[in-house]
Request: fold
Amino acid sequence: MTRTLFVSSLSPDGEALLSLLSTADPSAKHPHQFSPHGTQKAKRRTIPPPFGQLTHLRLLDLSSNSLSRPIPRELGQLSLLQFLFLNTNRLTGRIPQQLANLTSLQLLFLQDNVLNGSIPSQLGSLVSLQQFRVGDNPYLTGEIPSQLGLLTNLTTFGAAATGLSEVFGSIPPELWLCSELRNLYLHMNKLTGSIPAELSNCSSLFVLDASPNDLSGEILVTLEN
Reply:
């Protein structure tokens, strides 16, 4: 049976649930579906580490909740999770490499937060991942991991408006191995080098937005057609 947990940003019931799960024994709590509605503005909150014990979850949606502080590494214990939405919050710290344990994950939305550090190379093990969105995190730095080329089911990679390649790096040619890639959003970064010629092998590529960056060289004719 599919287990789903939604927490609305305008729900006093959602506030109570977060508080409950942070203090109670979560091993006895496997909510089937929680989709509260309300009108009271949610207070500042964090993601309780006991969420990692809700091992029956397939979908966890905590987007738009004004959540702060780091993403707990315990979320890497949700082995059945297919959809994880943590976008549009105030989450800080690094992306936990433990998320690489979520091998059933199809959608990973981390955009519009204040995460820092680099994208963990371990995320290349998320073989079922179809969309990975991490844009609008201005304190992310470092290079785009070449291991993302292992995500052969990836259709969308969004990393716009971050600090990627503020230190070093360029667009990795390994991304051409993502044979299902249709949308690649890398605009408003500090990427260097040229657009890899290998990307011309991405026959499904529909959108490639890499402006503005510090890229050089020519755009391949095969990418224009």
In short: DSSP finds two helices and 14 strands in the chain. The longest strand covers residues 57-61. The two ends are 45 Å apart (CA to CA). Residues 197 and 220 are 7 Å apart (CA to CA).
